[in-house]
Amino acid sequence: MITGQHIPDRDDDIDGYEKIDRYNPDLIHSLSDHYRDVLKLIGEHPDREGLVKTPERMAKAMLYLTHGYDLNAEEILTSAMFKEEYSQMVVVKDIEVYSMCEHHMLPFFGKAHIAYIPNGYVVGLSKIPRIVDVFSRRLQVQERLTNEIRDCIQKTLNPVGVGVVIECRHLCMSMRGVQKQNSVTTTSAFTGEFLKEKTRTEFLNLISSRLS
Ligand SMILES: Nc1nc2c(ncn2[C@@H]2O[C@H](COP(=O)(O)OP(=O)(O)OP(=O)(O)O)[C@@H](O)[C@H]2O)c(=O)[nH]1
Ligand SMILES: [Zn+2]
């Protein structure tokens, strides 16, 4: 039985998710208590030396792995938009993705490749990987992650088009379940010019080429 349970204040709303005070010590304490119970329920001894600090570590790790709920992708993008007459495709590829599937809360990880064609404004390059983190550091499915990144860039930057390709390995498919060690899932989402075959092909060629 957990005592002194901390129920987070829910007073704000980002992207439809309720904002919590993620690093509130009471919340960490309450989550640690739950993880201590989890350890007992899987047959472990939470008081043995190696596990004494584990519930707190798990609580802090889980709060970190879901910190994307606290971030506002539109704010991040609008904080670094610059008027620029560049009208060719901008591609940021091989962006590391670490997320957790919402079905098993096991990691999926891999790479995102993102492109847009500016429409009077470019965005600070670092902001593109930052918005990948906003949406990936949540409980996700790969398809929704892909669409959320596309929609956020389209809505905020209003480019001529956006292309997003994500390739990931899902631990719920390799270390358990169907146990396929080498399968990779690819998802994609496009708007505007990227719906045309010529532009999409240019993007796909650019992300498959390697710098020597
Ligand atoms: N579409 C999609 N499915 C996912 C993703 N991550 C995990 N899944 C799947 O979610 C499904 C959940 O299916 P269930 O049958 O309810 O769960 P399960 O019994 O654990 O399924 P198995 O993994 O087949 O053992 C599984 O097929 C997972 O492979 C994702 O990002 N996108
Ligand atoms: Zn899963």
TrEMBL record:
Zn(2+) binds at C101, H104, C172. Pfam families: GTP_cyclohydroI. One of its GO terms (cellular component) is cytoplasm. GO terms for molecular function: GTP binding; GTP cyclohydrolase I activity; zinc ion binding. Pathway: Cofactor biosynthesis; 7,8-dihydroneopterin triphosphate biosynthesis; 7,8-dihydroneopterin triphosphate from GTP: step 1/1. It catalyses: GTP + H2O = 7,8-dihydroneopterin 3'-triphosphate + formate + H(+). SUPFAM superfamilies: Tetrahydrobiopterin biosynthesis enzymes-like. Residues 33-207 form the GTP cyclohydrolase I domain. It comes from the Bacteria. Its EC number is 3.5.4.16. It is an enzyme of class 3 (hydrolase). Keywords: GTP-binding, Hydrolase, Metal-binding, Nucleotide-binding, One-carbon metabolism, Zinc. GO terms for biological process: one-carbon metabolic process; tetrahydrobiopterin biosynthetic process; tetrahydrofolate biosynthetic process. Belongs to the GTP cyclohydrolase I family. Homopolymer. This is GTP cyclohydrolase 1. It comes from Mucilaginibacter limnophilus.
